[in-house]
Amino acid sequence: MESTESDDFDKSKIIILNGVSSVGKTSVAKAIQNHAKKAFLHIQMDDFLEMLPRRALRKRDGLVFERIDSQTIDVQFGDLVQRALAGMRSAVASMAECGNNIVVDDVFFADEDSEYRRLLEPYDYRLVALFAPLEVIQTRERMRGDRDIGLAKGQFEIVHKDRVYDLEFDTSKKFPDQIAKEICKTYSL
Description:
Elements: H1 5-10, E1 13-18, H2 25-35, E2 40-44, H3 45-50, E3 63-69, E4 72-77, H4 79-97, E5 101-106, H5 112-119, E6 124-131, H6 134-144, H7 151-156, E7 167-170, H8 176-186
Parallel strand pairs: 1-5, 1-6, 2-5, 6-7
Antiparallel strand pairs: 3-4
Helix pairs in contact: 2-8, 4-5
């Protein structure tokens, strides 16, 4: 069946925010929810990691945080975590199939962007990079108090490597509200 303009208008809209821990993904996602004309559900990677049993933390098949030095933590995902996060990406597609608009708060370590592209091809989705200088992110990480210090530095060289985005924002130069308003305006959200 040939697509019409009204079909495109009714497609679920998905905004995927990618960036290191403490860059401001959650703040931008909540601001998008506040500024978008339509309702957007907020799906966070952290929520899916919290579903894991506590015994899966710090085990090879689960989630392992390995301290490289005093300022750097490497994160390793075992099979259990990889399956949970693959389930998250499938859940995003399933929610979109049901007509939901979604803003996703994620951290890419491998080929998550290509998996999202494959799963979300029928929908109106955008990949958005959020970044900031490492010093700014490290300051935020210390101020939060709920993250292991060094997590952001361990992710810093990985999450944006070889990725293609629809939009990119430096969260040290714009507030979450400004970024959200620009995303909403650009994509008619």
